[in-house]
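Render lytic cellulose monooxygenase (C4-dehydrogenating) in 3D.
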Amino acid sequence: MPSFTSKSLLTVLAGAASVAAHGHVSNVVINGDSYQGYDINSFPYMASPPIVVGWTASNTDNGFVAPDAFSSADIICHRNSANAKGHAVVKAGDKISIQWDTWPESHHGPVIDYLANCGTAGCETVDKTALEFFKIDEVGLIDGSAAPGKWGSDQLIENGNSWLVQIPSNIAPGFYVLRHEIIALHSANEANGAQNYPQCFNIQVTGTGTDKPAGVKGTALYTPNDAGILFNIYQSMTSYPVPGPALIKGAVNVAQARSAVARTATAITGLAGAPAATAAPATTTAAAAPAVTTTSAVVAVPTTTLVASTTKAVTVAPTTTTAAPAATKPAKGGCRGKSQKRRAARRAAAAAAAREAALARRHARDVAFLD
């Protein structure tokens, strides 16, 4: 018989695995171009993480936003989220494939997508609490004949942990935040039991559309007592009220399909158009259009369809476009060179200590999750 210590260790490991299994979006694919999302497994521990299209967030435990936080800013783009510093370009009417690294089968629930117009200044600096979201896609209950039913999340898993959403062709050109979300309902039969997993991305929509739909602020999308938030999936079901506002005119729920990755692409900064994408795997190069600055790291991605649910995107160190400074002659005795080395060593030690502290905090959260 295993000892109490062995049982406790197994419980801790199982709990940690459960936390890690929730998943997050690793990248988005637009017409074969793969743009990296915010990597919660590495970016929080970098002094200078690469510029990507995904918003930053502090959910390093792959955790969720609970209904009692629906009125807080955490529900907008996840916990302590901050603007992505880059964006991707997509034509109205085209589709975006949103790739999760994994999603647990037990976490049944709807998949929902929104857009919010950032205005002419772009999404890199917009106040997230001022964003007004309108719904462009939703898939809730697909088959409720046998509990717990088949849901949008199950369709996502069947599609290689990816979700295909179409940008409505009638949407006016501009800068938008794409808010993608899964709501897990496996504990939603109890108050505060639903689990929201929002993920945000900056996009620039092009085309000839003219519609500018009205939206709802992120903190007003849901309430804890909404019929689709407080819901029992462990029964025979004929319908499910997807939470949030109604779909806008022109919204289309497209047939789910996997998107092949042909190239890796760098996030675009500023208000200019898109540079040419580079073939995968590739290094960051200067953009063809001089007004565009591309500073994101390149993500190593497969050249086949995105089907792996257990592999994680691998990042390489971000490159810069600045020229290396001219070499200078060290001061007599080499003091300047030694001083620079000492400063570099101190910075490296501080960064290592910060990473260790972050990992320790993450471990503490995983253990606390089991209590």
